[in-house]
Design brief:
Helix content: 10-25%
Radius of gyration: 24 Å
Low-confidence stretches: 43-47, 414-419
Structural class: alpha+beta
Mean pLDDT: 89
Number of helices: 8
Number of strands: 26
Strand order of the largest sheet: 7-6-15-10-11
Oligomer: single chain
Strand content: 25-35%
C-alpha cells in the first residue's frame, strides 16, 4: 500500500512506495527535513492529535517550582541512569577490566567520554601528569624526552576517529546466535574527537635514521602494553592524543597521553603512552604473535594486518528495543571502515533477499563512525533486518557465511572465540517476530 500526502498548496508529494522487500522505503523520504515521512507517520495517530488539540496545555510539577542549582560538572539526567557501560569486572576488583559502549541507547556518531569502550588489562592506570614522560629514541639522530607541558607547546590538531578492539563482534563466531544486544555483540568500539600533536611533527624534530622501518609503542600500565607499528603510519596520520571530545583524556582511555592510529585495530592505539622506539623490524611481541594473529584453515597465519575492515550494524531497532505495533519506523545504525570513508550502506528487511540504500548522515568522515538511516513501514509480520556497508575503496561487508568460509568453522566456546577471532566484520541479523520482539539470529 502506498501513502500520498499533500503540500499546503494542495499539490501531492510522490507516494511512499516500498523499494525493497518487507516495506523498506526510499531513503529520499528522509530528505527535505523529513517532511514526506513525517506526514505519513501522523496517519494512524490522527485521533490522538485531535484529542491533544482539544485539551489545554497543562503545567507539570517541573514548571511550578525553581530547578536545582547547576553543578560544576554536568551529569546526565536521572532519567537516563540505564545508559551505562556493561563491565567485565562489576565488583571493581584489582584486575583487568573491560567496558562496552551501549550503542542501542545512543544516537549520532560521537561517543561520550564516560561511555567510550575500554580494555584495560592491568586496570585503569592512574598517572601523575607532572611526573609522566614520553621518550622517543632508537634509530633517531637526537633522542628526546617530552613532558606533558612540552607537548602543549607544539601545534595541535583535531580529528574524529573510531577505535575498535580487534576482538569486537567475536560472539558472531559462535555456533549458535547468542541471545544478546548490540552492546554485548558490538560494544567494543567507539568514536570520539581526538586532539593532540601529530607524531610526524615529533619525529621530524628528533630526526629519523633511514634504517628505521618500524616503531615500538609502549604504555606505562602494569602489562606495559606494546606493539610494533610500520613507520609510514607514524608519518601519515598517527597522533599523540591529549584530549578526548574537548577535555583531557578519560583516565581509562590513556590519561595523560595515548597513541591514536586512525583505522588501526584498537590494541595498537597504546594508552598511557611512555615510549616510542624506532627500529628496523617488528619485535614479535606477544601481542603480535600469540595474540592478534589469526590462524587460517589452510594452516597459514594472518599476521600484521592492521586496519579494521568495513563494518556496520543496526542499533534501532535491536534486541531490547522492541517494536510497538505496525507502522512507520526509522531503521538506524553505525558504519565505519579503517580504510577510509563509507561509500554506501544498504539495509534489508527480508534477510538479504533484497536491499535498499540508506541515507548517510553528514558529515561522512574517513575512519570515523557514519550514521545511516532508512524509513520502514512495518506491516506486523516477521522480518529479518540486516545492514551491509561498502567503503570508498570498494570493500564490501561480508555475510557471516562468507566470513566463516574465509576463516574456518567456529571453534570452542564464545569466550574462546573472543581470543581466536579477530577482525570480525560479518553482517549482523536481527529477527523481529509478529509481536515486535527483536532478537539476534543467523540468516
Amino acid at each position: 500500500m502506498s501513502i500520498r500526502k499533500h503540500r499546503k498548496d494542495g499539490s501531492a508529494f510522490a507516494p511512499l512506495e516500498p523499494i525493497a522487500g518487507n516495506g523498506l522505503l526510499d531513503r529520499r523520504a528522509l530528505l527535505g527535513r523529513g517532511i514526506v515521512l513525517a506526514g505519513a507517520v501522523t496517519i494512524g495517530a490522527s485521533t490522538a492529535l485531535t484529542s491533544a488539540a482539544a485539551e489545554p496545555l497543562t503545567n507539570g510539577p517541573w514548571s511550578l517550582a525553581p530547578g536545582v542549582p547547576i553543578p560544576p560538572y554536568g551529569q546526565p539526567s536521572k532519567f537516563e541512569q540505564k545508559v551505562v557501560r556493561t563491565l567485565s569486572n562489576p565488583k571493581l576488583e584489582p584486575r583487568g577490566s573491560a567496558a562496552r559502549t551501549p550503542h542501542h541507547l545512543l544516537n549520532g556518531t560521537i561517543t561520550p567520554n564516560g561511555l567510550h569502550f575500554v580494555i584495560a588489562r592491568g586496570g585503569e592506570t592512574e598517572i601523575d601528569p607532572d611526573k609522566h614522560r614520553l621518550v622517543i629514541h632508537g634509530l633517531v639522530k637526537q633522542p628526546m624526552v617530552y613532558t606533558l607541558d612540552d607537548l602543549h607547546r607544539y601545534p595541535m590538531v583535531s580529528r574524529i576517529s573510531f577505535v575498535e578492539c580487534g576482538g569486537n563482534s567475536a560472539p558472531l563466531y559462535s555456533k549458535e546466535p547468542i541471545a544478546a544486544n548490540v552492546q554485548a555483540l558490538h560494544g567494543l568500539c567507539s568514536c570520539a574527537e581526538w586532539t593532540g600533536v601529530m607524531l610526524a611533527t615529533l619525529l621530524e624534530e628528533v630526526g629519523v635514521d633511514p634504517k628505521a622501518k618500524w616503531f615500538i609503542a609502549e604504555g606505562a600500565d602494569l602489562p606495559t602494553m606494546n606493539r610494533s607499528i610500520p613507520l609510514p603510519k607514524a608519518m601519515d596520520d598517527a597522533m599523540i592524543a591529549l584530549y578526548q571530545n574537548g577535555e583531557r583524556l578519560n583516565p581509562a582511555n590513556g590519561y595523560p597521553m595515548r597513541l591514536l592510529l586512525p583505522g588501526y585495530e584498537g590494541n595498537m592505539n597504546v594508552k598511557w603512552l611512555r615510549r616510542i622506539k624506532l627500529v628496523e623490524s617488528p619485535v614479535m611481541a606477544i601481542n603480535e604473535t600469540k595474540q592478534y594473529t589469526i590462524l587460517r584453515p589452510d594452516g597459514k597465519a594472518w599476521q600484521f594486518y592492521f586496519p579494521q575492515e568495513v563494518k556496520s550494524f543496526i542499533t534501532h531497532p535491536s534486541p531490547g528495543l522492541n517494536m510497538k505495533g505496525p507502522g512507520f519506523y526509522e531503521i538506524s545504525g553505525i558504519s565505519f571502515s579503517g580504510n577510509g570513508r563509507i561509500g554506501k550502506v544498504e539495509v534489508s528487511a527480508d534477510g538479504g533477499k533484497s536491499w535498499a540504500q540508506a541515507a548517510l548522515q553528514a558529515p561522512v568522515l574517513s575512519k570515523a563512525f557514519t550514521r545511516f538511516r532508512i524509513p520502514w513501514s512495518w506491516d506486523g509480520r516477521p522480518a529479518i533486518l540486516q545492514s551491509r556497508a561498502t567503503d570508498e575503496a570498494g570493500n564490501v561487508q561480508p555475510t557471516r557465511e562468507a566470513f566463516i568460509a574465509e576463516r574456518g568453522p567456529p571453534r570452542g566456546t564464545p569466550n574462546v572465540a573472543a581470543f581466536t577471532m579477530e577482525h570480525c566484520n560479518a553482517i549482523t541479523s536481527w529477527g523481529i517476530n509478529d509481536k515486535g520482539g527483536v532478537s539476534h539470529v543467523y540468516a
